[in-house]
Amino acid sequence: MTFIQYTYHPGGSGPLPTVLAIHGHGANGQDLLGLGPLLAGGRLLVICPEAEFQLQPGMPSYTWFRRDDGGQRTPEEFERVATAVRAFADEAIPHAGGDPSRVVLLGFSQGGSLAYHLGLAEPKRWRGLAALSTWLPDEAAEAADTDGLGALPVLVQHGSTDPAIEVARARQSRDRLEELGAKPDYREYGMGHQIGPESLTDLSRWLERVLELPPLA
Predict the structure, then answer these.
(1) At 29, which CATH number?
(2) pLDDT (tens digit, 9 = 90+) per residue, 95-123?
(3) Cα gap 132→172, rounded to integer Å
(4) Distance (Å, rounded) from C-alpha 205 to C-alpha 148?
(5) Does a structural domain hold residue 215?
(6) Strands 45-49, 16-22: parallel, antiparallel or unpaired by DSSP?
(7) Is the torsion defined by CA of 14, 114, 152, 29 positive or negative?
(8) Confidence check: pLDDT of 41 > 80
(9) What Å distances lie between residue 109 and 15, 16, 32, 72, 132, CA to CA?
């Protein structure tokens, strides 16, 4: 599997702190690219893979998973895609000038379910996991390396009026994360299925902290 890659590069030399940003169902690789100049003052390399399956010919709308005849995603398909995204990260991050030892996973909606899987399965590999407007799938919980989860910074953000993924699912995800041994920083906002100004500010400050960047004035 080969993903199209979109990258925001802040300039400068040397390996850069990196965000691997995974878009949601119906979006594309450019959907989260606009976050680049806004996160930590534009000091981060942001790499955005684009999902494999186009929902409608001619439209920039993609989804990560192949569905069976009943419209369901199989556990095997989830693992296949997670493995492919992991391989993409292995190659794309150093190639684009990122620092493999300073990478935060960020996933929105369906992309957040993948970010959960990657982050919980290898908590010592990542500097942090940001799960935005998403839910914790069973496959990710079952793949979790519980020994290392307590040290992985996890930020969960969700809109209290999200019409696509009800906030109750985010709260359930928070509780399950705690059961697995994680210590999520859980935050709700008066917004829908989106990244709003307040949540963006909190996300940016959290990234500065977990990537050990000096705060901006």
Answers:
(1) 3.40.50.1820
(2) 999 999 999 999 999 999 999 999 999 99
(3) 14
(4) 24
(5) no
(6) parallel
(7) positive
(8) yes
(9) 29, 26, 12, 17, 6
Structure tokens at 55: 């929902």
Q: Where are the alpha helices (DSSP H) in the chain?
A: 75-95, 110-121, 138-142, 167-180, 197-210
For 142-191, how does the pLDDT look when each residue is reduced to its tens digit (9 = 90+)?
999 999 999 999 999 999 999 999 999 999 999 999 999 999 999 999 99
| Radius of gyration from C-alpha coordinates of the chain | 16
Does residue 35 contact residue 123 with C-beta atoms inside 8 Å? Answer: no
Q: How far is CA 130 from CA 30, 74, 107, in A?
A: 18, 24, 6
Question: Dihedrals φ, ψ of 210, to 5°?
Answer: -75, -25
Structural domain total, the chain: 1
Mean pLDDT, the chain, whole residue set: 95
- Dihedrals φ, ψ of 170, to 5°? -65, -40
| φ/ψ of residue 17, rounded to 5 | -60, 140
How much of the chain, in percent, has pLDDT values that exceed 70?
Answer: 99
Specify whether the CB–CB gap between 95 and 10 falls below 8 A: no
Q: Does any domain span residue 189?
A: yes
DSSP 185: E
Q: Can you tell me the distance from the alpha carbon of 177 to that of 184, in angstroms, rounded to the nearest whole number?
A: 7
C-alpha 32/C-alpha 51 separation (Å) is: 13
- The verdict on residue 216 lying in a domain is no
Residue 61 is part of which domain span? 5-210
